[in-house]
Write the structure tokens for this entry.
Amino acid sequence: MTSNAPDAVLHASPAASGGDPFIEQPVAYDAILLAGFGGPEGQDEVIPFLRNVTRGRGIPDERLELVAHHYRAFGGVSPINGQNRALKAALEAELAARSIDLPVYWGNRNWAPYLEDAVAEAAANDDTTLLAFATSAYSSFSSCRQYREDFSRVLDGTPYDGVVTIDKIRPFYDHPGFVQAFIDGVHDAVAGFLADGVQAESIQVLFSTHSIPEADALRSGSRDVEWGPGGAYAAQHEAVAAWVMDRVAQLEPAAASVPWELVFQSRSGPASQPWLEPDVCDVIGELPSRGSQAVIVVPVGFMSDHMEVLWDLDTEAKEAAEQNGLRFVRTPTPGVSPAFVAGIVDLIQERLEGRPNADRTRVASVGGSFDVCRPGCCENVRAGFKRAAAGVAP
């Protein structure tokens, strides 16, 4: 059974069980576990799904319905499961093209197919040494540690406890395969506005990501690093945004004069709880007074076109731009672009080969992309530390 020692790495492969931040020895993984958030696929599933997302918080269905209308506007179907099906197929094709014989199992945190089902299927096939790819790039409770808690939850006290191990691919915000889609999108949008006669100084780029509580942001990432007021979460996003703008300026020199900033969206907490700001729509409302004529919104916090992208950006942010007389472009997410899919398989190969950390490909890195998460990282202030795989306890 799994050790309860305070320094244990729960449910880890032998190579990761010692707690080293980087696993620099080859590991013979049996399979890849694609870990998703999940989403409803019909009107009848919307409220049950939202109950799963908010479990333990005592939110009544009447309040959940305020969010449900986002899904109902799209027939009750979140795009996220379809996107993960496409990603699974793309990963399987890329792995096969590189002669990497690893199956891909897919399980979600909040809706079918669930992580429990994926682990059971893997174990039934004698695939017990799993490497998980969680579909979120940055360091925070909701984008990293909560997945690790889920891995522990689906193994603790089950027939798979002590049989199945789950390691996790590092946060991949700084991998070029993830960043490339944002570079391409911003370059195309800036070039398009410039060709239409909009001056560079009148174009505003807004890099948007999901807001999280300030207290959680402060605790994101390793406690050994002084990240600043937004923790690792904000620092990593800022680094990606700066890298993107620098590369766009190399491709389009006039873009060096284009202003940009990091903004936030999709907050869901009570008004009394401070969340990361400013809000994307609030900033759009200020742009005319700054002399802006066009706005480019970059969903830098999102791997694919989630509901938050389709509703909060393509609907609400676009409407805010129209109301303020601004031209509007929302750039693409990585999705299943060839560069991104190849980048994920590069991350898998890092672990299969035990590639030394010094030899790994990174851009825009401010640190924090560990193979084994450090003690106390990404604490959930409201719930404290729960058992979590793929990291040194707590």
